Amino acid sequence: MNRAFALPAAIVLTPSHFTAAVLFALFASVVFAITQRETVHDQVRYGLQCFVMFVGGVFVAGWVMWLLRR
Amino acid sequence: MANSSAVKENYAPSVMSVVVPAVAWLIPGAGHFIQKRWIRGLLLMASIGLMFVLGLLMQGQVYRPNSGDVLDILGFVGDIGAGGLYIVTRAMDWGQGAMAHATGDYGTKFIIVAGLLNFISVADAYHIAIGKKQ
Fold it and tell me: How many angstroms separate the CA atoms of B101 and A31, rounded?
């Protein structure tokens, strides 16, 4: 391996689980919106809907796991 | 039958219907760029590209085709969807992340999903190329 091209260790990201989930939701929602709807209005609406569902799902799953752990 | 033959006529294969998916797979968003869907292409490129790069920076693992494990092969199928990003990553020998860390696991999933999202993007670019979508 050519060490000159190695990824610098200084820029290793360690986001929290929630931050990673929000980033995931953001990127996936953008792609879903663009590919699944035709007009800009529908794309914005569907993208927001997907984002809310993703992040809402994180909260619901979190509370379900909290209940299971009790 | 009348409908299916009409569909076949409307969506007849053209050079673009072959070139667009290939370009879209190789460079995420480029399939939309060459069809002058600039904003869509930019958003797709940014979303898929950032997701892949963030996955690498989280020490995510990039799967290889010949690991022998079925789950690893499925991971490879997801990863290969990222096209050029996957090829560059393998060429540079990046993506050797340690799965022992939680963030490494998140990163691995980010890389796989970036590839899968690019498959959807390729299909969308193809639909635009054959006139099925505006």
Answer: 28
